[in-house]
Each structure stands twice: as C-alpha cells, then as structure tokens.
Amino acid sequence: MSNKVSTAIVLFKKRQKKNGKYPAKLRLTHDRKQMYYNIDTKDRVYEFTDDEFEKIIAPKPRGEYKEIQLEFSLIEEKAQKIIKTMRDFSFDRFKTHMGITGSDMRNVYHYLDIKTKAYDKNGYGDKTAKPMKKALQQFFKREKSLEFKEITPAKLRELEHFMREKGIKPTTYHRYIDSLKSVFLMAQRENMIPLDLYPFGRDKDKYLAPRVMTVKRALKLNEIEKIYNYQPEPFSHEDEAKDYWLFTYLCNGINMVDLCNLKYRDIGSEFISFMRRKTEHSSAVKRPITIPITDDIRMIIEKRGNKDKSPDNFVFPVISDDLTHKQKKYKIAWRVRKTNVHMGNIGNKVGIEKHITTYTARHSFATILKRSGISTEFISESLGHKDVTITETYLDSFENDHKKEIAKHLTAFKN
C-alpha cells in the first residue's frame, strides 16, 4: 500500500503571505487524495515567489537556489523512507512519524515528544516521557537532537550516577528508564534503528538498572481496625477522608483515579466491575476488576455518592464530563491531598505512627490478604496487575515480631 504514495514539494498557492510569497509544502498523494505538510523548521522558513520557486526546481539551479533544491531532495528522501516503513499508510500516521517541524526519526527526543503529546491529549500512557527528555537534555547538554546510537551502556551508567546526584529516587529512575526503553522499541518497530543498538539487558555488555526494594507502607489489621472504629465528627473533613480511604481499602485497593472515574453503570446489584484507567488502553487482554459489594461499601456509596444515579453519571462528586483532562487531573490530585492530610490527623489520634495515605490503603489491601494466606495470583488479579512480579512489590514483609518467633525455632534445643 505504501508504494502507491507519491511525494513532491510544491508552492502552496491557496495561501499568499503579506510579503507576496507563497509557502512551500510537502505534498503527498495517496488513493487520489492529496495532503499538504508544512516543512518549515525553527531555523528555516520556506516561502517563495513564483519566479524564485521556478529557479529552485530548474534542472541546473545556481547559488542559493541549488542549496534549497538539495534541502528539498533531503526532505523528500526522508518522507519516502518513512512511507516505506509503514505497513498501512495514513496521512495522520505519516505526520506523526515525519516530525514535520524537522525532527529526525533517529532522534530520541522525537519519540519522547510523541509519547508526551499522547499523554497530554488522552490522559493515559507514559507520563515520564517529558521528565526523561529533560534529564537527557541536561545530561548530554543537547537541547534539540540526540541520536539513539549515543545512548550506550557506558553512557547509561553515567546517566544513573548523574540522576542519583540530582536526588532522583531509584523507583522514579526506573520509570524513566522504562520510558527510554519503550522509545527504543518504537524506533525499532519503525525500522529506524537496528536491533543491535538496544543497550538494555542482562548481558555483561548491556545496561541493567539496579533494583531497589521500596519501603513498605502497609498497615496491620489491628491498625485498620483503629481507623474503622474511629468516630469523626459527622460530615467533617475527617469523616469524608475516612470514607474515601476505607472505600479504597475495601474495593481491592482501588486507586483514586479509578475511584473518581467510577460511574453508576459500573455498580451492579452485587458487584462493582470496572477497567483500570492505567491499563485499559495498553493491556493486550482487557480484564475488568470485580469487587463484591459489602454493606460498608454500599453505605459509603449511599452517603458520598451523587444522588443522580444515571448510568453515565459519576458515582462520586469529584469530577464531571464537562471538565478537560487537566482539570480532572487537578481535582483528583486535590482529593488525594485532602484525604491524605486528614487521614494523617486520624492516624495521630488513634496512635498509628506510620504515614497514612491513599497509597497505604492499596498496599494494606494486598498485604493483609497475603498474611491471611491468599495466593499472590489472586491478589494480583484483584489489584489489576498484568504481572505477579508487580504485585510482589506491593506485598509487605511479615511483621518483625513474627520473624522473632520463627527465629526461636532455630535454637529450640535450648528449652
């Protein structure tokens, strides 16, 4: 299909500029349809009169016209190369991969920009692409272009040290590296870089980011009981925070993004069923999370939920459909902060020394099930993880007191 696409750089006569010139554009023709693309860059604006353009496309142009003709040929060559890599051509996909502003398909920043734009537009995907690009710009001291071949295992080890010196936490650094891995794979799928250029792996000549165990945040069951039995002043901020926190804990550790996006169509007579926002657009297998509705869950929905129970209405009055993606993000973040502040106050009042957040509720759900003998596979499914290794990072270690009891068995002969 891609070999039926023709390219040409033409003078776009439909729009004459105030100086009397016309913009030069890249024209693609496919299935009798034509599309025009801007070829200007930050350093070059292509606009000409009819006479100037005729001198550029002449068989033997001279001086600056010869240089411009060469630039045109390079732009067309790049376009044709991209078209050949596309299995199913579309004008939109071509625009994305051409990087009309002058981006090079071998430029790491180009792919990170694609991922950033997708996240900003849709609200899902790779939110670390933008800070990863900024970190690379600072490390390589390069603002506009960074080729894939420059990111070697040796450079990645230097980057790791650079990020550590900047105070980036190991878990955050891992998310950055995952983002960088994904753009390598994107470029390879487009046949823009060879497979052997991939610098990551367990082989000694590859780069493997070090793994660091995170500090666990789970509460014990008796601490959950203290929160459950705490009686805040009715309809106070503490009362509201407790309800949202318990709902998260009781509903398979649902995070606040998914909680705020629940709609009444997700609430059945006996079960809540929903797709995680984080994975609904990325997982190969779409598997909903199903939660049995207990009396406590039902009570919180009745108490905190919107009174209009239309199927398309949100359950909780945090966001609404008329908000932009950024507005929704702000309101959800505000709800998280507000809940965390007042849960911290509750924790202090009931004698819990640990830092309590909405994230604590998710970890606590997973860890308490583990301590109860529930399989990691079941917990993983309940959390909506696609890999049990992800679940294992959520599971808290057994309490130190329990470890001390086990250690006594090693010298039981002393008794």
Q: Strands, helices and their partners?
A:
Blueprint lengths: L5 E6 L10 E9 L2 E6 L8 E2 L1 H7 L6 H23 L5 H8 L9 H15 L6 H12 L12 H13 L4 H20 L31 H9 L7 H14 L5 H6 L9 E4 L14 E4 L2 H10 L20 H26 L7 H14 L4 H8 L4 H7 L5 H9 L7
Antiparallel strand pairs: 1-2, 2-3, 2-4, 5-6
Helix pairs in contact: 1-2, 4-5, 4-7, 9-11, 9-12, 9-13, 13-14, 14-15
The first-to-last residue Cα distance is: 81 Å
**Strand tally:** 6
Instruction: Provide the low-confidence segments as ranges.
Output: none
Major sheet characteristics: 4 strands, antiparallel
User: Which outline best applies?
Assistant: elongated
If you consult CATH, what is the topology of the largest domain? hpI Integrase, Chain A
| Average pLDDT rating | 85
State the secondary-structure class: alpha+beta
Helix/strand order: EEEEHHHHHHHHHHEEHHHHHH
Class of the largest domain in CATH?
Mainly Alpha
Descriptive overview:
The chain is of the alpha+beta class. The chain folds into three domains: 2-91, no CATH class; 108-197; 221-401, Intergrase catalytic core (hpI Integrase, Chain A, Orthogonal Bundle), CATH 1.10.443. It contains 16 helices and six strands. It has helices at residues 50-56, 63-85, 91-98, 108-122, 129-140, 153-165, 170-189, 221-229, 237-250, 256-261, 295-304, 325-350, 358-371, 376-383, 388-394, 400-408, and strands at residues 6-11, 22-30, 33-38, 47-48, 271-274, 289-292. The strands form two sheets. Strands 1, 2, 3 and 4 form a four-stranded antiparallel beta sheet that branches. A two-stranded antiparallel sheet has the order 5-6. Strand 2 and strand 3 form a beta hairpin. The longest helix is centred in the C-terminal third of the chain and has 26 residues, at 325-350. It is elongated. The mean pLDDT is 85.
